[in-house]
Amino acid sequence: MNKKLFVLLVVLMSLSLIGLIFVQSFWISKSIDSSEEQFSSSVSEALNSVTNKITERESKNYFDRYLHAKDSAGGELKGAQLTNFFFIDRDINSNEILLYEHGILEEDYGISSTFFDSSDGADTTIIKNYTSKRTTSIFKEDFDLEGNTPRLNPIQRIEKIGGLNKMEKAAMEEMFMVHAKRVPIHKRVSKQEIELLLQRELENRGVDIAFEYGVYSNGLPTKVKSSKFKYAEANIYKSPMFVDFEGVSNFDLLVSFPKKKRFLVQSILGLAMLSLLFTIIIVVAYAGAIYQLIRQKQISEIKTDFINNMTHEFKTPIATINLAVEAIRNPKIIVDQEKVLRYLQMIRDENKRMHAQVENVLRISKLEKNQLDISKDRVNVHDIIEDAITHVELIVDDRGGYIHTHLDAERSEVLANEMHFTNVIVNMLDNAIKYSEDAPKIDVFTERAKNYIIIKVQDQGAGMSKGVVKKVFEKFYREHTGDIHNVKGHGLGLAYVKKIVEDHQGEVYAESEKGKGSTFYIKLPLI
């Protein structure tokens, strides 16, 4: 994939993800605001309903007591007065006269002073009852036969007698309110009534939450409040109580909700958690996709590097074999048996070298597919180390180096495949030789750690950076050196070592510092 296209793709995906997270956060924030708005609206409706019901209940109590007092023995009629209002309209075209008569009968009662629980010492309280009498009459003006004397003939007469209209009733309610203002608030409404009405109205509106309340008079607390109520301007909902006909009220019902925030969060918690879960899944999937893209890009680069290295390494033996074959075909050389044998040995060695490389590739492939048959027997680690050293000691001697052994482990028998484990040690020694710029100086140690034996291969070569140490056991990985192939290899040796050691229930790791050499460790369980 083109680098610019890859970067563009990552940027677009990142922007999309950030936008999605922003939208989700915005939606959750708006949901909380909407939930709080709905909560406030429901609470306000509930409070208004409670105050209205308390006011209606008080008015009803006064009317009931008034009717009871009027019907009792002490409420006999003391006097009555009738006031009439007249309205006359004459239609000239039809000679009809409309007469509307509205009479109000005023009945005076002497009600006991205990009606209002008054303590002012008055013997009686004046209460008047009003009855409405409405009469509508239509007359037609006629003349006698001679046309001299007019006469009024009734055409229609409607008479209605009934109670007061709404305005008249409102006047009585206002009269009650004037007196009620003189009554202490704790006698007008009880805590139990407020609690019961509040709980019922809030539950009816889906607000099932603990609350505290208090009745305040002109900003000052009264006795009517819950035990834990505290006034806080930010979290208080209030509604006026006992509003008079001028819209004035001396009392306010205040309600607070200590667990309001938790209630609001819980109201959208389900959808918010679901949204968060999907967002996390998307983020994880996005991170995985980016990781896989980067990983595939790295693998592609590593494979390209591997192919270049393999091509470079096959070039030399192929060229050597071609030269040897051409030399043998020379009539002067073919008769020289010693030179022919030397060229044949060169062909054999180069062929063996290419075969070993192909075997390593096939071996790793089989290991990944679990197709490599690794049978394990009781073997001595020290013997395997000595055998592996014999495979590389000629190369070390040729470069003027050494391999010193420090086999100090008192127990060294493990369950392993002798051939594969020998290849493991050879690969580690070969790696130490390759990356030693001067004469290879290698030390091999063994020591026992509880029920494990630890093999340590230490060199004084070029060393590795921390980033390389983390990746050195990955397949195809080789430290990047550009187009310089001064170190032969294809990045499979240490990957093979890791696979074999893990198959033997062991561990392999490395420690290194650039310019100060490297140390490789193998940890295997003892029998």
UniProtKB/TrEMBL annotation:
Coiled coil spans: none
MF terms (GO), sorted A to Z: kinase activity
Parts of the chain that traverse the membrane: 6-28, 268-294
Reactions that this protein is recorded to catalyse: ATP + protein L-histidine = ADP + protein N-phospho-L-histidine
Keywords per UniProt: Kinase, Membrane, Phosphoprotein, Transferase, Transmembrane, Transmembrane helix
UniProt-listed CDD domains: HisKA
Entry-linked Gene3D superfamilies: 1.10.287.130, Histidine kinase-like ATPase, C-terminal domain
EC number(s) per entry: 2.7.13.3
Record bears the keyword Glycoprotein: no
Cited Pfam families: HATPase_c, HisKA
PROSITE patterns named among the record's database cross-references: HIS_KIN
Boundaries of every Histidine kinase domain copy: 309-527
InterPro entries per UniProt: HATPase_C_sf (IPR036890), HATPase_dom (IPR003594), His_kinase_dom (IPR005467), HisK_dim/P_dom (IPR003661), HisK_dim/P_sf (IPR036097), Sig_transdc_His_kin-like_C (IPR004358)
PANTHER family reported in the protein's UniProt record: HYBRID SIGNAL TRANSDUCTION HISTIDINE KINASE C, TWO-COMPONENT HISTIDINE KINASE
Record's protein name: histidine kinase
Lineage: Bacteria, Pseudomonadati, Bacteroidota, Flavobacteriia, Flavobacteriales
